[in-house]
């Protein structure tokens, strides 16, 4: 288990605050980060049902697809992927890697894609292949929560996490639900989406559906600083470069962990961050840099983040 100290730009002078980061990005070399934990029980179920094909949904740059394909390869099942968006002039790096690993891709209109397991494209795929196990987008659902609960327990039981206030980034809140139901005392969740007001309720509902309860003291924040999901701001780019200079070797992903750390930094600077010992959970996702423009790269050429 690797925990690093994360030095914040505001801490170059003496500070009574301690920031740590759990390096989920270094857990293994096949699809590190939260997605493999969300997938764990889904893929176990697919194997126990002897499904030869495992299908899922994802965006063209998604960390979920990258992890899904990598895990399918290890388990020797054939990945089928419904990709959001119908016209592709060129495959993204994420999709190219998926095809190279043997995945079969199905384009879908955004409208139909939104219907998920009720979509037409799902029916079409089921028409081509028999005995397909479907994993919801992002590895969501109760099985996703339970995988993240296991993950949260392993991290929180490590001595280095003792007494820490946990911070985790969220999209659907499934990962956060696993942490909220684990034995940690307090948790802040930072949404990568703008304007979410019901994140706390969503996390509670995800826990309930998995037969769990939120036991941690929970605070939630939305993405109010950079223009919304997947958007990079100049301020964030400058911050990431500075953070990397202070912490060589610690790189954050563009969509989730970077915005979480930035938001905590902003609060800390204003004296609004009360926690003495903070533990950020690095949920991986570095391959996401491959989907960002050339002038939005704080860590240079992102080619090393390829899957
Ligand atoms: C998907 C993802 C998240 C969000 O996970 P949810 O369970 O949807 O909240 C956070 N960080 C990274 C790097 C991700 O890829």
What does this structure look like?
The protein has 307 residues and is of the alpha/beta class. The protein has two domains: 3-32 and 141-305, 3-Layer(aba) Sandwich (Rossmann fold); 35-139, Rossmann fold. The protein is built from ten helices and ten strands. It has helices at 34-48, 63-75, 93-100, 110-113, 120-128, 142-156, 174-180, 199-209, 234-246, 257-269, and strands at residues 3-5, 18-22, 53-58, 78-84, 104-108, 132-134, 165-170, 186-191, 217-221, 277-281. Strands 1-2-10-7-8-9 form a six-stranded mixed beta sheet. The protein has a four-stranded parallel beta sheet with strand order 5-4-3-6, sandwiched between helices. Strand 3 (53-58), helix 2 and strand 4 form a beta-alpha-beta unit. The longest helix is centred in the first third of the chain and has 15 residues, at 34-48. The chain is globular, with a radius of gyration of 19 Å. The mean pLDDT is 95. Pyridoxal-5'-phosphate is lined by residues 33-35, 63, 138, 169-176, 253, 256, 283-285.
How many helices? The count is 10
Spans of at least 5 consecutive residues whose pLDDT stays below 50 are none
CATH top level assignment of the largest domain:
Alpha Beta
Portion in helices = 25-40%
Strand order of the largest sheet: 1-2-10-7-8-9
> Which hetero ligands occur in this complex?
pyridoxal-5'-phosphate
Strand content: 15-25%
Derived structural class: alpha/beta
Radius of gyration, whole Å: 19 Å
Order of helices and strands: EEHEHEHEHHEHEHEHEHHE
Report the CATH topology name of the largest domain: Rossmann fold
C-alpha termini separation? 22 Å
**Anisotropy-based shape:** globular
How many domains? The number is: 2
The description of the largest β-sheet is: 6 strands, mixed
Mean pLDDT: 95
**Total E-strand runs:** 10
InterPro entries: ACCD_DCysDesulf (IPR027278), TrpB-like_PALP_sf (IPR036052)
Family: Belongs to the ACC deaminase/D-cysteine desulfhydrase family.
Protein name: D-cysteine desulfhydrase
GO molecular function, one term: D-cysteine desulfhydrase activity
């Amino acid at each position: 288990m690797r925990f690093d100290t994360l030095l914040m730009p505001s801490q170059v002078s003496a500070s009574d605050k301690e920031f740590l980061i759990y390096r989920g990005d270094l857990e293994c070399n096949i699809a590190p980060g939260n997605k493999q934990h969300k997938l764990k029980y889904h893929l176990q179920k697919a194997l126990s049902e002897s499904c030869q094909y495992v299908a899922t949904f994802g965006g063209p740059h998604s960390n979920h697809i990258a992890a899904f394909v990598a895990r399918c390869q290890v388990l020797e099942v054939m990945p089928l992927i419904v990709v959001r968006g119908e016209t592709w002039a060129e495959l993204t790096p994420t999709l190219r890697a998926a095809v190279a690993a043997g995945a079969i891709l199905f384009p879908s209109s955004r409208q139909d894609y939104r219907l998920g397991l009720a979509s037409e494209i799902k029916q079409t795929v089921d028409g081509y292949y028999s005995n397909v196990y479907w994993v919801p987008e992002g590895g969501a659902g109760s099985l996703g929560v339970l995988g993240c609960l296991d993950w949260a327990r392993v991290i929180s039981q490590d001595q280095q996490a003792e007494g820490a206030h946990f911070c985790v980034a969220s999209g659907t809140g499934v990962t956060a639900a696993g942490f909220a139901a684990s034995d940690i005392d307090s948790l802040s969740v930072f949404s990568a989406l703008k304007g979410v007001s019901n994140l706390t309720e969503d996390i509670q509902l995800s826990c309930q559906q998995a037969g769990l309860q939120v036991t941690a003291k929970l605070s939630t924040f939305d993405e109010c600083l950079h223009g919304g999901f997947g958007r990079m701001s100049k301020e964030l780019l400058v911050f990431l470069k500075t953070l990397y200079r202070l912490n060589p070797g610690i790189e954050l992903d563009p969509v989730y962990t970077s915005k979480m750390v930035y938001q905590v930094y902003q609060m800390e600077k204003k004296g609004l961050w009360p926690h003495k010992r903070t533990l950020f959970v690095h949920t991986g996702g570095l391959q996401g840099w491959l989907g960002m423009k050339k002038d939005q790269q704080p860590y240079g050429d992102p080619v090393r983040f390829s899957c």
